[in-house]
Structures are given as structure tokens and as C-alpha cells.
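ARCHIVE CARD
SHELF: 3
SLOT: left
DATA:
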Amino acid sequence: TLAYAAAKQINRDVYIYQCTMDTRPEDLLISPVIDEHGGIRYVASALVTAMIRGGVAILDEANRMSEKSWASLAPLLDTRRYIE
């Protein structure tokens, strides 16, 4: 709630990703969706979309993620600013 309110205060779009204990590192990058023809296509995740558009990403229930998923985010949490 605090992150959402802060993002709205600075007029930023908010992108929420619902984390689970099954969240894999690749899930943080892309999301499969069913297109209008019934096929599967891949789109940028909420995290990547927030990075590209300058929005705020909220990782809801991130404490449920595995250490491997957290490790994939390490470069975002320091000065490197990229996703492995």
C-alpha cells in the first residue's frame, strides 16, 4: 500500500507482480499469454514493463520467492541495473 501510494504521489504507473514460491527467474522477465488465435505468445512481465516505461514495480508477496529467483534480481538492487 505504501509503495502504491508513493508511486501515485510522484505520478508513476504501477505494475504489480504476484510472487509465489513457484516463481522462477524467467517468470520475472516474461509472461505467457493466449493470443486472439488461441496460440501462446510471450510479453514482458510487470517488472520489465515498469523498467522500460519508468514505472514502479511492486513484487507482492516477494518473501515467498526462492533464493534463486531473488538472486536473479540482485543486479537490480545495486548499481548494475540489469536483469540476468
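SLOT: right
DATA:
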Amino acid sequence: MLIFTDLDGSLLDHDGYSYGGARPALDRIRRLSVPLVFVTSKTRAEVERLQGEMGLREPFITENGGGIFFPAEYRNFRIPGGVERGGKTLIRLGRHYPEIRRFVEERKGRFGIRGAGDLSVEDLVEITGLTPEEARLAKQREFTEPFLLADGAQLALLGEEARAAGLEIV
């Protein structure tokens, strides 16, 4: 048995992003030794912090499927094609972050696009309501770039350019 879960609004409540309401289920999952795999738009740094708080050591999928991370020596699995990164084995499914940033940088002037990499921690706190520590972790991108667009009417054109570059806007 294996359980996959989203985080925001699923395992974590909508208001305070707390997992307190899920604690009885989490305790049962732990007692039964069922792997609980997070599938999220959050970064590896955000997930590692959350797993640490929850006392979990399980695989997880970050940044909308950009990467799958397995803890080192996880259940004696051998992960073919994975690369070691920060004590975990990574299976990369997304593009490298510098490629994504290059795409954003090249289109800033025409589209008025501002990516997470352009925003300060303070900007992210103001825009998202995250704490400064949460915003710092959210900025540690590896595969994706959340962004703001000055004119939403240009989203379709930006999407066409993204597809032509082998990228997708979600």
C-alpha cells in the first residue's frame, strides 16, 4: 500500500496550512508503515522542512512533477537514472531552473513578466501571505517558476512561446 497526497488544501488546511486535522490519519499511516508521498507545487526545501516537522522520511514529488526525490537508501530501493542531491536521489522530470529563468528574463520587457526569482522574500510575503522563512524556502526553485504577468490578456501568446521553447505554462 502507498498513499499519495497533495499538500495545500488537502493534507494541509486552507487557512493556516496546518496538518493538525490530519494527525489521527497520519498516526495510523505511521503505525501501519504505509509510505505517504507528497505530490506538490512546493519546493524540495519546503517539503523537507514539512517532513522534518512531521517526522517523515518518504519520497516526494515537487514543483508540479518537476522532480521525484527518494531518501538515501530508502527501503533498499535502487533508483536507476537518479542523481544524488542533498542526501536524496533525484529523478528529474522538469527542466533545469536556469533554463526556465532564461526564458523569463528574455521576455520581461515584452510581457511584463515577473518570476519568483525576480521577487524578494518581502515581496513574496506580501503577495502570498507566507512567513519570511516560508517565502525563503519557496524561492529555492529547481524546476519551475511561478510568475506574475502585467497583462493577463498576453497569457495565450506567452503560452505559445513557452510551447515553442519546449516549456508549458500551468
